[in-house]
Amino acid sequence: MGSRATFEHAQRLSERMRRFMVSLAAAVVAVILTAVLLADSGSIESGLIGVVPGALVVLLVLALWSRVAVRIHVDDGLYSLQLWPFPFRSRVPREAITLAYVRDVRPFRQYGGWGVRTRRRDVLYSVGGTSAVTVEFHRKGKARKLSVTTDRTDELLAALSA
């Protein structure tokens, strides 16, 4: 018989991150339209049209990033995080967790960005937001930290403490 999940959540982009991405996408679309219109009107050389493939790649990356989520799963024996749709995953046996707490983080300032970020033995999963649940645990005799930004910190902390 398998373990029953005590907490399961897919943390999507924060509202602030979503607004930033929409603004960036609008700026990229404006660049594409300007390049196409200027090249079509003959007022500039057609060399500017070369910006369009790069801008389309940026739009594709933004579209992919808008679908990213951190999947959080806690059950009787395991705490796991995954940055979906990427293969980045962390798993910690529940009995290895020595401490779990909520803290404020600044992903860009403290870790250099969003996604899966590391600082020595400290790993952060973040898709925006500043409130994180951090667990401290030991693996191979070394102390480690695993944090995840989520808007459901109280529920996750309760599940980890149960």
Explained architecture:
- This protein is α+β, with helices and mostly antiparallel strands and 162 residues long.
- It has helices at residues 15-41, 51-66, 107-111, 153-161, and strands at 5-11, 69-75, 78-84, 88-93, 97-104, 115-119, 122-126, 131-139, 142-149.
- Strands 5-8-9-7-6 form a five-stranded mixed beta sheet. The chain has a four-stranded antiparallel beta sheet with strand order 1-2-3-4, with helices on one face.
- Strand 8 (131-139) and strand 9 form a beta hairpin.
- Helix 1 runs antiparallel to helix 2 (51-66).
- The longest helix is centred in the first third of the chain and has 27 residues, at 15-41.
Beta-strand segment tally: 9
Strand sequence of the main sheet, in spatial order? 5-8-9-7-6
**Helix-strand category:** alpha+beta
Q: Which fold name corresponds to the CATH topology of the largest domain? A: PH-domain like
Strand percent estimate: 35-45%
Q: From N to C, what is the helix and strand string? A: EHHEEEEHEEEEH
Note the topology.
Layout: E1 5-11, H1 15-41, H2 51-66, E2 69-75, E3 78-84, E4 88-93, E5 97-104, H3 107-111, E6 115-119, E7 122-126, E8 131-139, E9 142-149, H4 153-161
Parallel strand pairs: 7-9
Antiparallel strand pairs: 1-2, 2-3, 3-4, 5-8, 6-7, 8-9
Salient structural properties:
162 residues, five-stranded mixed β-sheet, 2 domains, alpha+beta
